[in-house]
Write a structure and sequence with these properties.
The complex is a heterodimer. By secondary structure, chain A is of the alpha/beta class. In chain A, about 40% of the residues lie in helices and about 20% in strands. Chain A is built from 8 helices and 12 strands. Chain A has helices at about 15-25, 40-50, 65-75, 90-95, 110-120, 160-170, 175-185, 195-205, and strands at about 10, 30-35, 55, 80-85, 100-105, 130-135, 140, 145-150, 150-155, 175, 215-220, 225. In chain A, helix 1 links the parallel strand 1 and strand 2. In chain A, helix 2 (about 40-50) runs parallel beside helix 3. The longest helix of chain A is centred in the C-terminal third of the chain and has 15 residues, at about 195-205. Chain A starts with 7 loop residues before the first strand and ends with a strand. Chain B is about 55% helix and about 15% strand. Chain B is built from 13 helices and 12 strands. A 5-stranded antiparallel β-sheet of chain B has the order 2-1-5-4-3, with helices on both faces. A 5-stranded mixed β-sheet of chain B has the order 7-9-10-12-11, covered by helices on one side. In chain B, strands 6-8 form a two-stranded antiparallel sheet. Classes of the chains: A alpha/beta, B alpha+beta. The interface between A and B is medium-sized, with 25 and 25 residues.
Chain lengths: ~230, ~500
C-alpha cells in the first residue's frame, strides 16, 4: 500500500512476539504502527493516536477483547480486525456482532493479514463510493444494476443481484449469514439460511469459473461469506 | 388378633385357647351321654370308648385340653359307670387296674400329642425360615447393583416381618453412616442414635434385644469380616412382638445383607484398581505420543529456522515450505487435543444450520491439501444436492480428519475418494471417505472410534484421536459413523447425518 500519507495502525496484543512480528510485516508495507500490551492501554492509545485501523487480540489479560471492542465502539467507528486463537465460530460471530469488521484466526499468514487489513481499511476510505466493482472476469455496475461476465450480461434474479451487491460492497470482508439475511429479507428472516444457500449456489453457477470449487464467492466456515477480489 | 400377627407364624406351640378346653369338655359330655344308653354290664367297653375319644381329641387340640379330657373322662367313667354307680369307690382289683391304666394312657397320649405338635410346628417354621432365606439369597444374587439388592432385601424384610425397615450403610472410610434411599422409614432422632450406637459397638440394640434403647426399632449391625458395613433397622407396631425364631431369622437376614454389601465393596475396590491402572496406561500412552507429536514439528521448525540463515534462494523456498507444513501439523494437533477436551467436557453444542455440502467438502479439502499432496483426490458431490442441516465447522472437521487419516495410512500416490449425497428416501445425507490403503484389520474395527487407538501395524502419525473426535462430532449432530471395506480394497468410512425437510412457510 503506497498512499501519500501512511495509514496509522494500532496493535493491541499482550504477546510481545506477535506485536514484534506484526510490526515488521506492517512497517514493510509502509503502515505507521503503534502498540499496546493490554486492553486498557489499547483504549487510551486509540484515543490518543486516532489510528486508521486497529488489530485487536481477543484474548487479553486485563479486559475481554469483546469488552475493549464495545468500549471502543462507544465513540469510534475505526475499522477493527480481530485476532483470535479459537476456531469456534461463536467467538467470531460474537466479535463481528460487537462491531469488529473482520477476524483472523491464529496462526495466520502475512498474506492473509495484509489482505484483511486492506479490506477493512477500505471501509472508511472515500473511494468506497465506487459504482463499478470487478473481480475475476465479472463486472458489477451498481448504477445500471447490470452484471457482466467476460463482457456479456449475466441474468440475475433480484435477490441474486442484491446478494451479490451486498457482498461486493463488503468485498474482502466477511459478512455473516445474519447480516445478509437482515439486509436482504428483513429482520424476521434470520433462520432462512436455507434460501441463502440456494441463492449462493445459483450465483456461483452463474459467476464462478468452477462453481464446485469457488474462488471468489467464498464460504467462511460457519460464519458467512466473503467475496474475494484478488 | 390375627391381623396384628406378623406374617411368619409366630410362637412354636400356640397355647390352647378356651375353645379347645370347651371342646374337650363337650366331647366328654357327649361320650358320657351316649354311653348311658348301653347296658350296665358294658362298663368296661365304655372305658375304651373314652380312651378312643381322647386319642381322637389329640388330633385336634393341645396338651392341656387332652389332659383335661383324660381326667374328666376318668372321673366320669369311675363315677357313673364303674360299679358301684354314682360313687368314687371301686369294688374289684380288675376295675382298679383298668382305671389306673386308663388314667396313665390318657396322660401319656396328652404328652405325646404336645410333642408331635411342637415338632411339626418346628418343621414348618424351619421350612419357612429356609424359604425366606432362599428368597433373600436369590434376590441378592440376582440384583445387578448393590442398590437393587438392598432394595429387594428390604422389601422382603418388610413383607416377612410386617414391619418397616431402614438401612444405613457406611462408605470406604467406615467412619459414618449414610441412610439408604430404599429404607421405608427414615433414621432420625432416637432411631438414628441407636443405629449409631449399634454401628460403633457391633451389637444389636433397641427393641427385642438385650440392650433396649429409647428407640422404637430394633437395630442389627451388618457385620462381615469383623467390619461393620452398616445397620439394619426393623420397626414393628408397638403391640406386636417378635418371637425368638423371628429374631433369629432377622439376624440371618442381616448376615446375608452384610455379605452382599461386603462383596459389592470388594468388587468396587477391584474395579477402581483396574480403572486406575487403565488410566495410568492411557496417561503414559498419551504422554508419549503427545510429546512425540509436539516435538517433531517443533524440531522441524527449529532446524528450518537454523538453516534459513545461510540458505540460498532455492533452499530458502524449501525450508519455508517445511516450516509451513510443520506449523499446519502442529496446529491440527492442538486443534484435535482441544476438540477432544471439548467433547469430554460435554460443552460441545452443535449449531445446526443449512449448509452447502459442497462448501463443507471444499473447506475440508483446502485444510488438508498439504497432507493430501501426492494422493489423487476424487470428489463426487451431486450438482443438485440440496442444502443439508449440519454444523458447518464440526462437519468440516470430521471430513478433514477422515481425509488426513486416509492420507496418513495409505501408501503415497494412492487415490482418495470423497463423496456426498442423499440416501435413497432422502431421510439421511452421507459423506463417504474411501482409500486404497490396507483397510482396517478385523481387530481394529471394533475399537476404531475409541481415543488413543492406533493400528499398530500402520501407525505412522497422529495421536489416535482423529476417529474418536469424528464420532463425537457426528453423534453430537445426531448422526452416525460406519467403518467398512472399500470394494476393491481399502478403508471406507461413511458419515450419516439426519436430513430433515426444510421448514416450509418462510418466504423465498
Amino acid at each position: 500500500m503506497t498512499t501519500s500519507h501512511p495509514s496509522r495502525l494500532l496493535i493491541v496484543d499482550d504477546e510481545v512476539q506477535i506485536r514484534r512480528l506484526l510490526r515488521v510485516a506492517l512497517e514493510a508495507e509502509n503502515y505507521e504502527v503503534h502498540e499496546a500490551a493490554s486492553g486498557q492501554l489499547g483504549l487510551s492509545e486509540a484515543a490518543g493516536v486516532h489510528p486508521d485501523g486497529v488489530v485487536l487480540d481477543l484474548g487479553l489479560p486485563d479486559l475481554d477483547g469483546r469488552e475493549v471492542l464495545r468500549r471502543l465502539r462507544e465513540w469510534s467507528q475505526v475499522p477493527v480486525l480481530v485476532l483470535t486463537v479459537r476456531d469456534g465460530e461463536e467467538d467470531k460471530i460474537a466479535a463481528l456482532d460487537a462491531g469488529a469488521d473482520d477476524y483472523l484466526t491464529k496462526p495466520f499468514s502475512r498474506r492473509e493479514l495484509l489482505a484483511r487489513l486492506r479490506a477493512v481499511l477500505r471501509r472508511t476510505q472515500p473511494s468506497s463510493e465506487e459504482t463499478i466493482v470487478r473481480f475475476s472476469d465479472v463486472e458489477i455496475d451498481f448504477a445500471a444494476r447490470i452484471v457482466r461476465r467476460a463482457g456479456t450480461e449475466v441474468k440475475l434474479t433480484a435477490k441474486e443481484y442484491d446478494l451479490l451487491r451486498y457482498l461486493a460492497q463488503h468485498r474482502g470482508r466477511v459478512v455473516t449469514h445474519q447480516q445478509i439475511l437482515r439486509e436482504l429479507w428483513g429482520a424476521n428472516a434470520e433462520d432462512s439460511t436455507h434460501y441463502l444457500r440456494v441463492y449462493m449456489t445459483h450465483l456461483r453457477q452463474k459467476l464462478e469459473p468452477e462453481p464446485r470449487a469457488p474462488k471468489f464467492l467464498q464460504t467462511e466456515s460457519g460464519v458467512g461469506y466473503r467475496l474475494v477480489d484478488s | 388378633m390375627a391381623d396384628t400377627r406378623p406374617a411368619l407364624d409366630p410362637p412354636p406351640v400356640p397355647p390352647s385357647g378356651w375353645e379347645e378346653y370347651a371342646f374337650s369338655l363337650l366331647v366328654i359330655v357327649v361320650v358320657t351321654a351316649a354311653s348311658l344308653i348301653l347296658p350296665e354290664s358294658y362298663y368296661l367297653s365304655v372305658g375304651l370308648i373314652y380312651l378312643l375319644a381322647i386319642i381322637l381329641l389329640c388330633l385336634r387340640v393341645g396338651r392341656g385340653p387332652v389332659l383335661l379330657a383324660g381326667v374328666l373322662g376318668a372321673f366320669a367313667w369311675e363315677y357313673i359307670f364303674i360299679p358301684p354307680h354314682f360313687s368314687f369307690a371301686i369294688n374289684s382289683l380288675q376295675d382298679s387296674l383298668l382305671f389306673g391304666t386308663y388314667f396313665v394312657v390318657s396322660l401319656v397320649v396328652g404328652q405325646l400329642t404336645a410333642q408331635i405338635r411342637a415338632q411339626s410346628q418346628n418343621d414348618r417354621l424351619r421350612e419357612q425360615r429356609a424359604t425366606a432365606l432362599l428368597h433373600l439369597t436369590r434376590a441378592l444374587a440376582e440384583a445387578k447393583t448393590l442398590d437393587e439388592a438392598v432394595g429387594a432385601a428390604l422389601r422382603q424384610t418388610d413383607e416377612l416381618f410386617g414391619a418397616q425397615t431402614s438401612l444405613a450403610l457406611t462408605d470406604e472410610t467406615y467412619a459414618s453412616l449414610f441412610p439408604h434411599p430404599a429404607s421405608s422409614y427414615s433414621l432420625e432422632g432416637k432411631e438414628r442414635a441407636t443405629a449409631e450406637w449399634v454401628f460403633r459397638h457391633q451389637s444389636n440394640a433397641g427393641r427385642f434385644t438385650d440392650t433396649p434403647q429409647a428407640s422404637a426399632g430394633c437395630y442389627l449391625p451388618l457385620v462381615c469380616d469383623n467390619k461393620t458395613h452398616g445397620v439394619l433397622g426393623v420397626k414393628v407396631r408397638p403391640d406386636v412382638t417378635l418371637t425368638l425364631a423371628q429374631k433369629d431369622l432377622l439376624e440371618a437376614f442381616a448376615r446375608q445383607l452384610a455379605l452382599s454389601v461386603e462383596r459389592e465393596h470388594l468388587r468396587a475396590a477391584s474395579e477402581r484398581e483396574k480403572l486406575l491402572a487403565e488410566s495410568e496406561k492411557l496417561h503414559r500412552a498419551l504422554f508419549d505420543s503427545v510429546s512425540h507429536e509436539l516435538r517433531t514439528p517443533l524440531a522441524i521448525i527449529n532446524a528450518s529456522a537454523d538453516s534459513l540463515a545461510g540458505a540460498d534462494q532455492n533452499l530458502r523456498g524449501q525450508l519455508v515450505n517445511e516450516l509451513r507444513t510443520a506449523v499446519r501439523r502442529l496446529n491440527r494437533l492442538v486443534g484435535n487435543l482441544l476438540n477432544q477436551s471439548r467433547l469430554e467436557s460435554g460443552t460441545l453444542k452443535p449449531r445446526l444450520d443449512w449448509c452447502d455440502a459442497g462448501d463443507i467438502v471444499n473447506a475440508a479439502v483446502e485444510n488438508t491439501s498439504d497432507a493430501l499432496a501426492g494422493h489423487p483426490l476424487a470428489i463426487a458431490v451431486p450438482e443438485d444436492m440440496p442444502p443439508v442441516r449440519a454444523d458447518f465447522t464440526l462437519t468440516e472437521y470430521v471430513l478433514a480428519n477422515l481425509l488426513l487419516n486416509a492420507a496418513n495410512h495409505t501408501p503415497p500416490a494412492t487415490p482418495v475418494f470423497l463423496a456426498a449425497g442423499l440416501e435413497p428416501g432422502g431421510r439421511r445425507m452421507f459423506f463417504t471417505v474411501a482409500d486404497r490403503g490396507p483397510g482396517f484389520s478385523p481387530a481394529m474395527r471394533g475399537r476404531l472410534f475409541k481415543k488413543f487407538i492406533q493400528d499398530d501395524a500402520t501407525a505412522t502419525a497422529g495421536l489416535g484421536l482423529g476417529l474418536s473426535i469424528v464420532r463425537g462430532f457426528v453423534v453430537a449432530q445426531g448422526g452416525e459413523v460406519v467403518a467398512g471395506e472399500n470394494p476393491g480394497g481399502g478403508a471406507l468410512i461413511t458419515v450419516y447425518l439426519p436430513h430433515p425437510p426444510p421448514k416450509a412457510g418462510t418466504q423465498a
